[in-house]
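Re: beginner question about structure tokens

> Can someone show what the tokenized structure looks like for a real chain? I only ever see the sequence side.

Sure, here's an example I had lying around. Input first:
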Amino acid sequence: MNIAVVRTGFLCIVVVLSQMVLSPSASAQDTLNRSCTGDVYRLMDREQRLYRSVLFGQKASADLPIGSTRTDTDFRLWMKTGTGSWRSLAEGFAETTWGDALMDERADVPPRRGLLEQRRTPTSDLLPPILQSLRALQCRLRSVCELSRVRESPESPESPESPESPATITVQVEGCLPVTAAPLVSCTPRDLNDIGFGTCAGTVDSIMEREGRLLHLLIAYDGAYRSVLQFGGGFEGFLADVRLPLLQPLWQALRMLGSLDHLPCFLSQCDE
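And the corresponding structure tokens:
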């Protein structure tokens, strides 16, 4: 019994000492990984907003109703509180008010007309640019993952003589165009990023699967809606053609028969 107690106490001491030795480094890794993950998710969120603005369009700030929200280039959230008035609860901006023009200038997604806002166009003609936009979203999301793994551009590898990070770096995913963006300082050093952020590709796959399913539903709805409009427009012309040569004489005959009640009666049976 005494030996068991001694062994238990010894194991407890070993566990406590190991936690005291490893906890600072593990805590630092967790902190860096959480910061890196937050920055990567914010960039992915912006790419998703950009993609949806290409599909649905982005109205100008002056045309948005009160209560609408927009995000600026620094990922601060703004809400329209009145006509030409945008407010934010972000740190340092609680007392700041932006106008519509300033909001459009500093928003992360500029005003634009969406692909689905085009009129007099069948859905089949919209499929090529829509699918190309979905492909561009995949490339840009994968570029965010690539951006989180490097600090300097591949053309200028990191060296002790130039420890400062460049203002922008260029990353290129296989099969996609190169993307130039600011480096993610929170995702360095590289070894911590590789340990704590191995699910970036899985996140991209999840986003693409969800957007693909939504796009499938969206195209089906848009095709049905435009088909109904086309049928309604053609049927309206058919009704106009039927009304004039066929229905209009019948209406004239009915009006004439209805006016017979006002004719005077000259027969002897009229007095009965």
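Each token stands for a local structural state, so reading them left to right follows the chain. DSSP finds five helices and six strands in the chain.
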